[in-house]
């Protein structure tokens, strides 16, 4: 019997774990020719394998539960009590789960048809597009307007020395302050031009202008017609020639 066991253990297909050459003289197990065998550790190894086979069945049940949740269409009928659990079956289940996870990851990166339809509908509501044919033209229009607004905002930020990170509200407030300053300067210049700081005096001067200017304009028009000239600069030389 020991010769048959030894031939199996020394086979090229046998795992290295099950054969260990004894360091001391053979005491319990001796070959037919009297040489030592070194099989003292085999009972412990066989017990360990038995435990692993039982754990393999538990692992098989756990993988089946996971497969029923993730890939139920890849899961075969559960094996019977007498059917042995094979590592190949477990490997097949793991490969099926991994393949399904990879496919889900790839498909999740690509938007579905309902998602794309929802995006188009949302765009139509935001930009008041009645038909699908008008989506692309409105997209181009929005893109062009956005580019113009971005360039204008960038130019204003540079002119006002606000920096590229300044928000639009700061740009608008700065422009409003500049407009107030310009309006104040214009008012002061008008007051200086009219020679008065009193608003009532300005009104009086405007009223005087309205009273004086129409008759003066009529007189000048009559002179131009009478003297048969068209320019104001020619009035004085023509009158002098009449002397």
Automatic annotation (TrEMBL):
<protein>
    <recommendedName>
        <fullName>Centrosomal protein of 70 kDa</fullName>
    </recommendedName>
</protein>
<dbReference type="InterPro" id="IPR037692">
    <property type="entry name" value="CEP70"/>
</dbReference>
<dbReference type="GO" id="GO:0043015">
    <property type="term" value="F:gamma-tubulin binding"/>
</dbReference>
<comment type="function">
    <text>Plays a role in the organization of both preexisting and nascent microtubules in interphase cells. During mitosis, required for the organization and orientation of the mitotic spindle.</text>
</comment>
<keyword id="KW-0175">Coiled coil</keyword>
<dbReference type="GO" id="GO:0060271">
    <property type="term" value="P:cilium assembly"/>
</dbReference>
<comment type="subunit">
    <text>Directly interacts with tubulin-gamma; this interaction determines centrosomal localization.</text>
</comment>
<dbReference type="GO" id="GO:0005813">
    <property type="term" value="C:centrosome"/>
</dbReference>
<keyword id="KW-0963">Cytoplasm</keyword>
<keyword id="KW-0802">TPR repeat</keyword>
<keyword id="KW-0206">Cytoskeleton</keyword>
<dbReference type="GO" id="GO:0070507">
    <property type="term" value="P:regulation of microtubule cytoskeleton organization"/>
</dbReference>
